[in-house]
Amino acid sequence: MAGVAASALGTAAAAAGDVPADVLAAERQRIDAIARGSRAAVAIFAGEAGGGSGVLISADGYALTNFHVVQPAGVAMKCSLSDGRVEDAILVGLDPTGDVALVKVVGHTDLPFAELADSDEVEVGDFCFAAGNPFLLATDLRPSISAGIVSGVHRYQFPAGTILEYADCIQVDAAINPGNSGGGLFDARGRLIGINGRASFEKRGRVNVGVGYAISANQVRNFLGFLRGGRLVDHATLGATVGTDTDGRVVVSDILESSDAWRRGLRYDDEIVAVAGRPVRTVNALKNVLGTLPAGWRVPLVYRRAGRPQEILVRLAGLHRPTELARIVAAQEQEQQPKEPGQKQEREPGQEPARPAPQLPDTLRDLYEARPGFANHHFNILERDRVAARIATSASWAGTAGAWVLRGRLGTGAPFRIVVSAERALIDLPTGTTEVDATGELDSDPGPPGSGGFLAALSLWRRLLIAGPAHLGRTNYWGTQPRDPRGLADTASAALVDVLETSAAAVEARFAVAPEGAVIGIELWPTPDVDPCDVRIEPQPGRSAGMPGLIEVRHGDVLFGTFHVEEMTFEPGASEAAGETS
Amino acid sequence: MKPGPVKPRQRCVKPGQRRGRMAVLWLLPLVAVAVWCGAGGLAGAGTPVETIAAAARKVVKVYGAGGIRGLESYQSGVLVSPDGHVVTVASTVLDADDIACVLDDGRRFRATLRGIDPRRELAVLTLDGEDLPAFVLDESPPLGVGSRVFALSNLFGVAVGDERVSAQHGVIAALVPLAARRGAYEAPFQGDVYVLDCTTNNPGSPGGALVDLQGRLVGLLGKELRSAASGVWLNYALPVAEVARAHREILAGQPLAPPTADATAAVIDPLALGLVLVPDLLDKTPPFVESTRPDSAAARAGLLPDDLVVAVNGRAVSSRSAVRQALAIVAEGDPVRITVVRAGSIVECDLGPRPAGGRR
Description:
Helix content of chain A is 19%, strand content 35%. Chain A contains 10 helices and 31 strands. At the A-B interface, helix 1, helix 2, strand 8 and strand 11 of A face strand 1, helix 2, helix 3, strand 8 and strand 9 of B. Strand 11 of chain A pairs antiparallel with strand 1 (4-5) of chain B.
């Protein structure tokens, strides 16, 4: 009724040339929003295999799209910008499970781009629109717009095998057709709320029936660091399966004893109440949360046993084995290739298929480096060096080549002293002194006892700060993780920090680096599949960034110690150069 | 139902229906855009977000028989009374002893089939609940063509548990008599329906709510039907007045509407006799009895689950559809006698006079 009345009103008013100001303003806002979203849209061409859409998210040409759009194209592709210009683009990162890919349009520094919104604020009934290239219709390469409303939020759409899982996705009635894949879904202000990629079809063939799905911007944000780092990223699994019991509760039906969830105390028949701050009332709800999280993150998990809720911090494992994703991607690629009659498709089990060296145009040749586990290792080096530059500017570590001495008091008030040099790492505690040989493998003696490897962590920390990641064992950019994993319980969109990953001596370590360049966390694994030594470093207010004020050391569920650093001094050391280069 | 990644396999749309639909969509002038944005300013209307949130609480996900051979085991329904009356479409989903309705807060109710209206192909279910959120069923005059509406339904079974049903937006494109068919059968209802510019013809949508900008129930999304003229899948809804009449008649125990003058053949669903046959899955599904409704003619006549119906009023029947056809030629008020094979013996069951109506 109101619609009729208002339509009549609107028509009458328009005829009289007297449209209400708020109606004009709303119209203007919509036109502006669509123009904004439209400018950031790109079309992606994968040769014979067709193509799809994408959306720029940075002025220097990073664009999001679907894995299933770029996958037939391989490493190099053509992208058309919204003004019709056609440019070369290179693959940066792949997320086959989430059906997301990151590419980079080369040769630009001032492209229009879309701002990632907080997709958890999207509500059913909100206006939304898709910008893309449905049916690859646009002969002038300018994007097509389809408008609609948000039909559902936090939807779960089952994967095909273990990839192309749409978890926690946004359902829309804006037309999503073949070719819209990879394009942006925008809100009423033209901000990016999702990446379109899937639709329910049935009896009308592959044409929209008012049911499309977009990967949420918040899921994309969780993986974006990994994608920018050129990775073939994996999604998370709890290491446990769940079912619904007769009372409708979500309970653990099976759990791997090698999982972190098991080590943290989760057991059969425990009821899962919340994960990463999201309540879990159905199996779908748990799949929705896990499906949006990268492997390796730690998230808070609340479970209930015998009526009592317990909160634990669980490290999520990868959904796939290390080489499995690469095999799946390659197998899909093979499927796209025309098969020679009689050609054998069998492969030795466990053997990674050889990816043929791509033929790259001159503009892209220096932007690609193949490496197992990566979509494009070249971009990992870029990200690693970006973080290194930030560490280097946070403090002048170059003049600190001698032994580092940290003095202060423990949480109990007792004094401590830590000495870290190229040759050794030593800690004086009221319980005694522990020293490790810093030139060795670092794994034989993860001292001090009970810490899980605190001295080895400090030793690598010093080497990272002085020599930089390029000269510390094999160091890659890992991705991003929540600055405070427990904060995920309070806000779904946590602040993320960069993480470097190091294999040095015989140990593995990860360093979390804050935006100002301070190392704020170290995790050190003396051997794989054990609890790491977990070091949290709070910078000292007033000191230069990177100087620790408080160091908290945990191992497993136990707080090993809290170190209030009152003084940090640097001794001159002559033997340093030899130590670092050996 | 095959959701899958959207990947262009073809480079162009087949001309025809899609173009037509797009044209209708884009005919919406700027006025419509303006109305939508300004909806918050209209008396009694909230924002679309508020309207949908309030209305979706009154839509239930219905689960029953099916799940094989392209027959869905789910559909939608609307709550029309706080004590648990649900109106939905009469379909094979209801051919089950265990029908469940799930609300948007995750509450799951076992539903009882109260009765069906075979002409409008509607059914009333009852849930054992109190103070449930419900639409008001009134017989207000139909909405005008061009009115904006929202469709709320359990399409594709996307929503599960406490997830809210899906919302779509659209416009009433026409109010015209329904001329539709399902396979070879003409749809029994031929009264006026809303034709919608909104793709509501999806699995699971039937029984969903069509609401106006104030969130009032204005229609019920119809079963999946094709146009009798063009074969195109129809997006339509029964106006709320028809829904209200069906609800009232089913409660009054006279679910069958009076015959119309042009009726040449009567159509009666075995369900009207309380007879539940196995789901019609094959070209010639053998007409086994699945169950009988309590206190129905079929129950009183002594029909039992697993009886095989072999004749209706002496006319041999070999399939579910044949039972339907045989019942169709029994005049209203004439006795119905069903012959079954039970444990190797022939058993005759008298179901009393055929109920009134069921004509088209």
